[in-house]
Amino acid sequence: LSNYAFPGNVRELKAMAYDAVSFHKTKILSMETFKKAIGESELFEIPPAGEEELFAGLESLPTLGVATESLIAAALKRAKGNQTIAARMLGISQPALSRRLKQRED
Question: Exposed, middle or buried, 40 (CB in 10 Å: 0-12/13-18/19+)?
Fold first, then answer.
């Protein structure tokens, strides 16, 4: 949950917590209700500091343009084409993602 962007801010978290409590009959909440609300594809692990560099295996770093295109393509693939979910994964708004996709077309 700490890695999820919560685009709805505190209200979204509050609604998720209420839903989780209402679905559980025991006194212990599981992540299943949260995973269903967020979507499994939006939960990701941030590697701890000091872990291997993301681009360590590459001889040269990709340009920002190439990296951006790759991230957008990967997010859209994981989101099965859903721009709203892809934008959340990327930490940008859906209109910002739409603008970037439109720029690619031009």
Answer: exposed
